[in-house]
Design a protein that fits this description.
8-stranded parallel sheet; alpha+beta; 7-stranded antiparallel sheet; 994 residues
Length: 994
Amino acid sequence: MRKKLPSLMLILLLLLSAAPVSEAAPSGLDVWVVNALKTVYRTSTLPQNPETGIRLVSARNEYENAQIAVRGTSDFKITKVEFSNLVSGGRKSIASSNLKYHFAEYGLPDTVQPNIFFPERVGDPIYPLSDIPDPLSNEKSMKAAANSTQPIWITSYVPSSTEPGVYEGSVTVKTNRGDYRIPLQVEVADAEIPKTSDTRFINYIWAMTNGFTWDGMQFGDASSDAYDVGKHYYDVETYSDKWFKLMDNFALVMTDYRQNMIWVRTDLFLKETGTNLSEFLSGIPDDIDWSLFDRYMQIFIDKGMRNFANAHLIHILNYMPAGEKPDASWNEKLPDALPQTDAFLHNYLTALHDHLREKGWTSENGFTWYQHIRDEPIDDNATNYWTYVAKKVKAIVPDFKTMDADPHGILLNDKTKPYVDVWVPLTPAFQEKEEQYKAEQAAGSDLWVYTCEVNQPPWLNRFWTQPTLTGRLLYWNLFQHGVQGHLHWAWNAWYVGSWYGDSTIVYPDKKNMTVKSSIRYEAQRDGLEEYELLRKIQETRPELAQQIVDSAVNPADARKYTLSPEYVKALHDYMVRAAAGEQVGDVPAPSSPYDGQQLPLTYMADNASGDLKYSGTWYDKSRQYAYQGGVRVTETANDAVEYEFEGQGIDVVVEKNETSGKMAVSIDGAEPVIADAYEKVQHDYFTIYAKRDLTPGRHKIKVVNMENKGLYLDAFRVHMAEGQQAYDASLSNIAIDQVPSLRFDSSVREYRLSLPDGVDVVTVRPTQTDENGTMSVNGRPVARGEAATADVPDGISRITIVSTASDGRTRQEYTLHLVKGAINEPGINKARSSAQVTATATRTGDQGVTYGPSKMADGDYGTMFASPQGYNDTYPFPHDIVLSWDQPQSFNTIVMATTSGLLQGINDIDVQVSTDGTNFKTVARHVPIQWRSDKDDNVMEKTFAAIPDALEVKKLRIQINDADYRTWNMYALYELELYQLPDHGELDVRVTGP
């Protein structure tokens, strides 16, 4: 391990910068350094212990980033940012021209321009005013308002010719209030990121240039206008010299950010130079003018791109005769020939291939041409058509690689597989069917994945509605599983509007005839560079490369990963040094482990553990990605939780979100540490506090809510002392003879089961993880291998299993909530007799009928109420559902039914009732509604909640406080059922043998 001593220059810079960086200068400005992955809000203030310098570790040909935050008590202006050369040992240097800055922006004036795709969105902002910064301005100065923090994005590039060493210099932020100098250190290791043109990983993002998907298509007399980005966002004429210069600027940005593949709208170039696609039906035209196509291609080739894709053939094939389109007969056998379809494909693709060969742009010269057929096939007709066309493509141009995005893995069938060259599943489909995809890869196919708006948080993606690091860790995850490429549908689809960042990762910059980068784009490039570092490590130490990525992303579930910007940077620095062959020691220990990460000498205490002592008003909230599926919440200042534990360290795990505030954490009565849980975007399972150096023994931790804001406690993680034994009180299984469909998960402590008619008895068979532990069921001891049987009357009842580990102290409790007699029939289900059902989140027009509120009380599990997609963006929770009756009703049980509950189910409600139809009384607050399924499988799921008796009710108002709406940007309820059922509490059980 090398020891580094600070140089005289660095010491001097630290001394010079200390006052303005670490505290408010006389000018009233605070200046501090922030990790590039951490969001700087306008409300962010100088931390207690601010970073006072930028310290980066970099390979050659790598870009690395940091942020400088500036805040003042009155308006100020940052006039520019200057960099010194970075010097190592007095002789080696990195020129200041390799250092850049950009101002992060919280909103843009740019709007959606008139277009044929979404004309109703014209005028919508591309990046609306937000609490979260994303665009990175190309301007050299910036005005900032009083008490509003301005982040400055700092980018260091290390040229390939740079010698290894520690390089030091400074950044000077020049303002109308004075200059602020910040030391900058870049440690350059003896490793190099390959050039974009040399990488084997394919980074493919569709770009809107002379058109996008199907616009502008011409076939015979049918034609439409192409939606050209230059014309609509830069006021340049399509195919003019200025337009091609704009394309050149686009290509430069793309390749700088490691994009090495682009698609080409070949048809639009040919249309402009006089070739109608219908001409290919009768042969190859003699007068094809390829000049525009060639000029466009050459721009990207000159920037190093060697991978190109021809746009989807389906948009042309839609013009083929109806008799050549797929029907049910294709399920039995594909046609041998389709005369016009075959003629067009042969002539069009042959002409294209012949021209590419003439230009030297084919595989023998290092170029790869990919052919799209149909995007996202989802049914038999689409799959059959895809298969037929792919078979023809492979016969006509065998060196063109067939590929398309496949959301559900529908192309993984024996009829289609021989004609797929590149597999591109959506990441959830890849995770589900990885074994099948890896078999195809092993047989010689390429394996990519794609992401889009469907991969909602916490899937690794590039939305601005999730932590910035997710767009970076995505590429770690792809390396983790041997994936060779990534496709995303939108580099600059500005016609869509904001769409949470899914539709764009760059922003228009008409003034400078280029694009603005984004914080997310920077994170993506970082991830792509780290993919290359990991490959370098893998060449000599494959087990270390795997260990690095497994430390950050759960190899079994890509929805679970570290949320610590500091830890990601630590791993990056470690992998740079490892790629250089340095002696690096052990992989850094995680500071915010992901759920399920194996940590030696630790155990978890869930928020529902009986060992935790709460004071104040707390309630439970379902959370799919919390430690045990839920958090415990308080919104009242001075409410607290205490936990006595044995060990030498402890972590506090919380959910961070925009309603959270500050908490005070103390151990054994010591001075509390203040932690802020606010984040605009939700962070599940986040380690907000860690203390690892306690004296081994018994300790007590106390967490106090400091504000009338949310404190969302997930769990405590205890770090044990050497020699201390961990005890596990979990169950490894619960089986119920009469409910074979029960899906047990040891991390789920509560189950809500609706028993079918005819089930009058249940036999419960629990199995302990600790073979020497003890169990009880509703208070009766149950030995290993024994079962507990109970008679189940109509109504609500409960079976509680208490598992105690062999230490006699560690306990876990599992509860089976049973409901019987909840029959969805008129007169039994009180919702069916309602006179009216209304909802605030109601769709309009025909969809307001098809998916209207009445559908939740019609007794039909094939219909549903669904909120409008995107409704929550404008109208955040709470929302209301109101049922009215002509005759008063009484009930104490709410049953909800939906498919894919964890994707679209309501999960937190208040229950308000009115006996006079006007005045409401709240009878239950924050009732958790628990769902189990995150599969899009159309399987109905039921769950229920008991509430206090609601008697003689004329109106019921269900206030929806939260729902699992983010996947499809809506929530749904197939049936709402209300019952008056007796509550039998814990059932008497009989213990029986195996």
